[in-house]
Fold this sequence. Notes:
Chain A is of the alpha+beta class. Chain A contains 14 helices and 30 strands.
Amino acid sequence: MLYSKLLGKSKKTIANYDSTNARLLEQGGFVSKTMSGVYTYLLLGQRVLNKIEQIIREEMDTIGQEILMPSLSPKSLWEQTGRITKIDALFKVLGANELSLKKNSAEYILNPTHEEILMPIAKQYFSSYKDFPFAIYQIQWKFRNEPRAKSGLMRGREFRMKDLYSFHTSEEDFKIYYEHSKKVYFRVFERLGLEKDTVICMASGGVFTDDFSHEFQTKCETGEDTIFYVKSKNLYYNKEVAPSQAPKVIYKEEKELPRKDVEGKGIIRVEELAEFLRIPVEKTTKTLLFETEKGEVIAAGVRGGYDINEEKLRKIVGCKILKLATPETVKKVTKAEVGYAGLLDLPKTVKIFMDESMDNRINFEMGANKTHYHSMNVNFGKDLPKPKIFYDFKLAEKGDAYPETGEEYVVFKAAEVGNIFPLGTRFADDFDYTYTDQQGKRKKIYMGCYGIGPSRIMGVLVEKFHDERGIVWPEPVAPFKYHLIGLDLKDQKIKKHAFEIYKLLTTNYKLEVLFDDREDVSAGEKFSDADLIGIPHRLVVSRRTGDKVEYKKRSSKEAKLVNLDEIQ
Amino acid sequence: MLYSKLLGKSKKTIANYDSTNARLLEQGGFVSKTMSGVYTYLLLGQRVLNKIEQIIREEMDTIGQEILMPSLSPKSLWEQTGRITKIDALFKVLGANELSLKKNSAEYILNPTHEEILMPIAKQYFSSYKDFPFAIYQIQWKFRNEPRAKSGLMRGREFRMKDLYSFHTSEEDFKIYYEHSKKVYFRVFERLGLEKDTVICMASGGVFTDDFSHEFQTKCETGEDTIFYVKSKNLYYNKEVAPSQAPKVIYKEEKELPRKDVEGKGIIRVEELAEFLRIPVEKTTKTLLFETEKGEVIAAGVRGGYDINEEKLRKIVGCKILKLATPETVKKVTKAEVGYAGLLDLPKTVKIFMDESMDNRINFEMGANKTHYHSMNVNFGKDLPKPKIFYDFKLAEKGDAYPETGEEYVVFKAAEVGNIFPLGTRFADDFDYTYTDQQGKRKKIYMGCYGIGPSRIMGVLVEKFHDERGIVWPEPVAPFKYHLIGLDLKDQKIKKHAFEIYKLLTTNYKLEVLFDDREDVSAGEKFSDADLIGIPHRLVVSRRTGDKVEYKKRSSKEAKLVNLDEIQ
């Protein structure tokens, strides 16, 4: 490819970007932002994306068969699982103007995932125990209604996804496949140069299962996720599910004081409150009220400085849906305006749950259940019965310990590069999809789903592999293998020679070469463009290189003259 | 690939299909219909599609550079060209439920074509005369709000498209590229096995240009288009633009009779009217009233049996927009209810246009411009002034002649497999995209666009290449090269042998093989499945084939025993 002809030449600066990967990819001419979270892949970017997808395809072919599902689907499929009202990123499609609506006023779904599309197809073809297990995958666009797409290619409204679905006759069979899939995923990350910094991490199973799902997380300072690592056990948790034990607070020689209610109108955030009351933050208490799907009201308290992890709490409460109580319920139950709830003197119908971070405190604060008032010097036994059990339903924070061993977590930022989910029998049930066993009986089907986002990985690769001068692509996904730079090209002899070398490399050696053939650009500019674009091997031909070429790796500083036949 | 594991095994019959290609592709397990006009490509279909796209890609790489544009775009881009209200197939995208709308209530366009997306990108990078000409292409999904998608893969709501856009500094330069693109297109059709039956045909330039566009049309009885061929000139016209001359009607010794008005309430269609009045259809006249963008009213008449081609008429009238007059206008102008309009006694403000098919008639019929009445025995000179010019604005019909030579058209059905359009300066103008010439002056940019639909081509290939037993794929796009059929596989020795051959072919010979390894299926069923699927080369291994295999081409009837090393 001649660089002079490339749509997507390097830019010195760009105006708006939301992340390092967006900046470098746009500056280097890999992508062009069409709108927030929606990118056009220019030739360079399209080549990187294709290479990432081809690596994923080759590995997935060892465990599944490729198909290609559409982006549009009828609403009826999504009604069948109920997800039409539940997925908060769901897009629909309909005629955009009067002419179009007059032709056809129907509405369709723009698929954010493809379980609903695949179920009726699988059901058509595979229903005997002999057909199982099987696994189907595709590499296709996905669409999600992200409010503010950010992080460049790491989170988009429209993005590429490899999604694989496995089907099994038993949970045991599913688990064997699931464990094997982790190995296949690591082969992908190995080929992408990410394996050393990528870990398997427990994450939420979402609404489908109480089991964990597993995320493949690559250590990355600009990643969106926070990982909690238990060194002694070599276990990784996503912050959202990490079990946690708060650092103990010790009050030497402090005596229990009598409770008193203090007026503090509008002082609701714990930091403000601690300052106002002149107490440490950990003496404050955050109380939230929730309602279950059965209409029960739950009061939950954590020590100031923590947030409640609703998913952890839901599992403890043992309900299906847990949502924040409405202001009306809060007022009814606490007899106070929202913001002053505590665990004191609540009606008996309200079940109280306390996080373990609340334990071991003396003279702590708590909402007084009285508008504008906060109770100080609350103590267990005296003001509030000490619960039989303290739970763990807070969102883990840096500094917390892993409860089982008591060791402090190692905490780091990471970017998700893949995830795998046990789906249980849920989707098969929704589509009344069963298999017939050897005795002719209909039995339940167990499923898993397995995602990797090629466009997201492209973003993560840039976040991981760049320096102050630009991108440093891992060789297997680089848009070209060689970046040939021609200098002194206004000299027709040199120009002819440079083009001959380009032809030799591409036609005879069959190498992928980007040739910077621009005549009106300085050597410095060409070198800095090459560094920005990040192709692994740089070659320079100039007045000074004679019948050799200058060779330099993007990742090293040393350049040397080499013979052409040393290049391959 | 083991056939026993394939998602998408052959079906004896399928319930609903709209075309031969839909039936054979669904029966053969290539696709599964997700909804009308929206298909899932199963492994076999996905492989065919990929091969078609790879052929297109290789040829397009000789004349353009590949990028990948998104499916979502902001409305603002479509407002810039005004096409947001004009494209009658335009889809928009927005949150599908309350949760989603609450997160983000914005609306986007789901792209049916990509001029609007490419213009701002091209403008960013190429603006000097030195950068021109250039051409950019992609292979991507397109979405169109088709009311009733039919014809299987030949017309979908969601389909694959290769769209290339070329940019030029002058119309002359554009034309050189445009002519060259035709040759490149024919290389594609040659590789697909379609070149012999494919012709370049003049078609409507749409709203962008008064020039013709060009369609690549493959002769095909089930095609959606009708082509008019001028043999002596070797010219092809799409019916929608074919110039036409109606067969002359000769009235031997018929004398002109006095006009009379006959009551015929509700008799409006010309066939009914001819029967009612006991005259031949060609003596009836169809009159339609139109309004231009300036509010002028036009009356246009053609002989019964023809329809008016509004696009031809628009060019003759010389206006930008021509639309059927509203019922109110018809009543005002003709002083009669709709359905009884004629060219007699119209107000002077109404411009009258007559098609050449109206000429040479005696005692013809015409609406009387009087509710429920038809005028009979109308004659030029007496009842109606003979116009100075008769035009050609009818939709050509079989039997018509090419006006220039007077020869009758050869008419045939065809399926569009590609189209190329001169776009003029329209899109560049809308985006204020110009280039700077050698003198530093800003000049207009001329563009062309060039489409081929890979999924549509897959449908056309099936329409063209099938027999009563199934599909007969051209070798370059067949999903596999060899279909290996194992018989007598319940015999473990034969089974082992068959698997060894499969391994030899795939691992040693690196051939693409679909291996029918099913044990519980009869030979007859396997052969008929192989015929249905249409892989070019069939191999059979059975108790009777010994150390050889039976070889048969899908397109021939003869089978013969061959040595394994003869296969490659």
